[in-house]
């Protein structure tokens, strides 16, 4: 699949008032001074300079679309987190505080509503090796664990800034030893690590834009001995050792390939490439996890199939990618390269 920039949603045609009055030169200056047009021209020039065969303005079609707006089975209201299970099924949580369980073909299996939701709804989901669903109950500053059919197993955590306490937890990851990594924002902007018995082991991170700082860490994946974190308000991917040591930073602010605007979702594919879902750029990118080099992209802003509005997260199911298209109340399924 060819890489291409996302269409600028803010570009507007130049005013024709000067043309109507015969002041063509003023109209041309209005055109040049229009920020949206300047940005579009810069993006086009960057395409040429990069020497890529970019299909600017072309909308790739998804393989299929699952769901629609609503509160019935398989319907959703602003879905914003998704997690796959070892058995090939997956879970989605939406802004109505509903968790829904789907099979690999997007068919509804079962669902339930979080016990409390008036303060806010979860923004992350993770499934463990046993198929149980871990929910960072974000606005209640705790973690709740469910069986696949929605029976609560355990909850832990209270609000605070101390070791073992949480403020707005966003995601959970597990290493090969079963240790539990939990990201938070709010007053903490850090990652905490617990053993399989929920004993606190270590933590790191603080608000800022320095190399090892974090600003709303939203999603995490662990590959080998490295933890990848979407440092979303810093518009980058931060990479740490499992001991919290800083390794490297991937990307920076922008809309070109390999750049990000509010990267929220993070996943890995079968080749351990990173799959990054960008809330701000309305697209999904595939990137080399070691260098951050862009490999492919999919999506642009809009409401039609193949277009995205505020996507939050995605998963891989084999060679397919399922993205939660939050602003369009649906999921879209695609393959990079089609």
Describe the SSE topology.
Blueprint: H1 17-20, H2 24-33, H3 35-50, E1 64-66, E2 79-84, E3 90-94, E4 98-102, E5 108-113, E6 126-127, E7 133-137, E8 142-146, E9 152-156, E10 169-174, E11 180-184, E12 190-194, E13 200-204, E14 217-223, E15 226-231, E16 236-241, E17 246-250, E18 263-268, E19 274-278, E20 283-287, E21 294-298, E22 313-317, E23 320-325, E24 330-334
Antiparallel strand pairs: 1-24, 2-3, 3-4, 4-5, 6-7, 7-8, 8-9, 10-11, 11-12, 12-13, 14-15, 15-16, 16-17, 18-19, 19-20, 20-21, 22-23, 23-24
Brief characterization of the structure:
The protein has 338 residues and is mainly β. The protein is 9% helix and 37% strand. A hairpin with a 6-residue loop joins strand 20 (283-287) and strand 21.
């Amino acid at each position: 699949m060819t890489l291409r920039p996302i269409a600028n949603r803010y570009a507007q045609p130049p005013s024709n008032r000067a043309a109507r009055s015969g002041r063509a030169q003023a109209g041309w200056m209005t055109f040049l001074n229009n920020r949206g047009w300047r940005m579009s021209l810069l993006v086009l020039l960057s395409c040429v300079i990069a020497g890529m065969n970019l299909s600017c303005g072309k909308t790739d079609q998804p393989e299929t679309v699952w769901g629609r707006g609503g509160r019935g089975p398989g319907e959703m209201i602003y879905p914003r987190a998704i997690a796959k299970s070892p058995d090939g099924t997956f879970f989605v949580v939406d802004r109505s505080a509903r968790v829904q369980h789907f099979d690999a073909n997007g068919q509804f299996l079962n669902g339930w509503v979080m016990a409390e939701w008036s303060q806010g709804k979860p923004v992350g989901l993770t499934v463990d090796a046993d198929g149980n669903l871990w929910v960072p109950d974000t606005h209640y500053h705790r973690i709740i664990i469910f069986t696949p059919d929605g029976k609560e197993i355990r909850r832990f955590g209270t609000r605070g800034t101390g070791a073992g306490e949480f403020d707005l937890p966003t995601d959970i990851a597990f290493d090969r030893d079963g240790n539990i990594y939990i990201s938070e924002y709010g007053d903490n902007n850090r990652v905490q690590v617990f053993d399989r018995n929920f004993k606190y082991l270590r933590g790191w991170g603080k608000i800022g834009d320095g190399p090892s700082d974090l600003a709303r860490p939203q999603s995490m994946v662990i590959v080998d001995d490295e933890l990848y974190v979407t440092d979303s308000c810093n518009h980058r991917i931060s990479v740490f050792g499992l001991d919290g040591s800083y390794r490297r930073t991937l990307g920076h602010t922008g809309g070109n390939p390999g750049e990000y605007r509010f990267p929220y979702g993070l996943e890995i594919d079968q080749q351990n490439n990173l799959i990054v879902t960008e809330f701000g750029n309305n697209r999904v990118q595939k990137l080399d996890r070691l260098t951050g080099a862009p490999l492919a992209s999919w999506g642009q802003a809009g409401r039609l199939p193949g277009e995205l509005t505020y996507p939050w997260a995605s998963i891989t199911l084999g060679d397919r990618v399922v993205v939660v298209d939050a602003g369009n109340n649906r999921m879209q399924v695609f393959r990079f390269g089609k």
